[in-house]
Automatic annotation (TrEMBL):
Binding site for substrate: 190, 214-216
Binding locations of phosphate: 19, 59-60, 92-93, 191
UniProt record similarity statement: Belongs to the PNP/MTAP phosphorylase family. MTAP subfamily.
UniProt site positions, description: Important for substrate specificity: 172, 227
Organism, as annotated: Actinomadura graeca
Name by which UniProt lists this protein: S-methyl-5'-thioadenosine phosphorylase
Pfam family, one: PNP_UDP_1
Amino acid sequence: MSTSPSAGPAAEIGVIGGSGFYSFLDDVEEVRVETPYGPPSDPIAVGELAGRRVAFVPRHGRDHRYPPHKIPYRANLWALRSLGVRQVLAPSAVGSLAPHLGPGTLAVPDQLADRTHGRAQTYYDEGAAVHVSFSDPYCPAGRRTAVGSARTAGWDPVDGGTLVVIEGPRFSTRAESRWFASQGWTLVGMTGHPEAVLARELALCYTPLCLVTDLDAGIEEGEGVTMDEVLRVFGENIGRLRALAADVIATLPAERTCPCPRALDGMEIPLELP
Ligand SMILES: [Zn+2]
């Protein structure tokens, strides 16, 4: 695999770790990548896992300094692509909008509903109008691999469902939470958008791995969700989430035959992609 001094060591698979998921690979080389959108959340850790070259970035920074609405999403995806990454795994902590999907549930949603506002959510701000298809926001091959790996590991996942992404950083009110559930949405998080659409705009594969840490406010009887609870449940499950991410990486196809690489076909792109 080629390396270049300016771009650092090449990687093919990227992992964006969420709250509580601050490190992943052993024996890494840390790469500082500059992008037209500023620096990513942290230097990118590049190493090898299961014979694949992997790049890891903690979404919130390793000291959790970026709240969900301030994460440099564009820089993160751009930096990963500039290192050669074409498939991205995105573990995150989410709330559940369904009582039967309790803490510790693993879900691989197939839909997303965006309730964020004011975030930079496109690379194509000027020069040309670029309208990517987002009807199916996640990579079908990545989802299949994630669901299969989880089943093999004995962590029976929820295959499908809708992740609603809220602006945060506050959690939902009970009314909001009941409204989301009444739409048929199953999970609630704060970072899934614009991350997924930015990946699509760079023709990357993007696969969410959602760990349920709590029942959202309108779903449970108690005090409502707290950050302590989220981090406690995440801490209890981080070992198997890491192991699952490693299994998925080992199993992801080397050649992409999914539609993601063709996301920009036939469009005039006003940027040169890294
Ligand atoms: Zn794909």
